[in-house]
Amino acid sequence: MNILIIEDNIDISQNIKNILELDWYKITQIFDWKLWLEKALQWDFDMIVIDLMLPNLNWMKVCKGIREKKDTPIIIITAKQDDDDKILLFESWADDYIVKPFKIRELEMRIKAIFKRLKKDIIIKIDNISIDLKTKTIQKNWKEVNLKLKEFQVLEYILNNKTVSRTDLIEYIWWWEDLFFWDNNLDVYISCIRKKLNKDIIKTIKWYGYSIKN
């Protein structure tokens, strides 16, 4: 797996490189995106990690430009904590993002999660329900069903992992927020998914978490 790191902080970039190479990832570093980004898009990468705070970088334009040329997954590194910025990040062409300061092992976990997802079937069918993980669309009895962003993320995580603990699910979806708050509200999201799709699509495992219907 060849990963492109676009980060102007040499120390951060090198630390990421050192850790990821332990998992046999091939790392290509770019410190000046103005000079090398366009050329880099001509190469084949399995993933691109971009620092949102690079000077004079229109990250929305960059992500869109990458998507128009290829389907390479994108993870954005950001220092922004504002809720509106988080919404923009999820509505952008990026696949995921991570907030500074972060542990490189956390970035590594997110990279593995995306690669794991890409290895799976794009369209998953459960009874009369069809779930397209690429377009993030769902049909039930050939009619489109609209899930809210967080509802889809909860469903997608359970789909990708088959069986998950309640703790892992909450930490993955809401890791930057008050986990106790979301622990009390996760049941609401699960209930909404069941109501919109099927009451049996997500099964509760007592004292542990959830599993997806086979």
Write structural notes for this entry.
The chain is α/β, with parallel strands linked by helices. The chain has two domains: 118 residues, Rossmann fold; 90 residues, Orthogonal Bundle (Arc Repressor Mutant, subunit A), CATH 1.10.10.10. Helix content is 44%, strand content 23%. It contains eight helices and twelve strands. Strand 4, helix 4 and strand 5 form a beta-alpha-beta unit. Helix 7 crosses helix 8.
Order of helices and strands: EHEHEHEHEHEEEEHEHHEE
Q: Which descriptor suits the 3D outline?
A: globular
Ranges where pLDDT stays below 50 over 5 or more residues in a row are: none
What is the oligomeric state here? Answer: single chain
- What is the percent of helical residues? 40-55%
Q: Could you please say which CATH topology of the largest domain applies here?
A: Rossmann fold
In percent, how much strand structure appears in the residues? 15-25%
Structural class call reads alpha/beta
Number of strands: 12
Instruction: Report the end-to-end length measured between terminal Cα atoms.
Output: 30 Å
Q: Look at the structure and give the mean pLDDT.
A: 81
Number of helices: 8
CATH superfamily (homologous) name of the largest domain = Response regulator
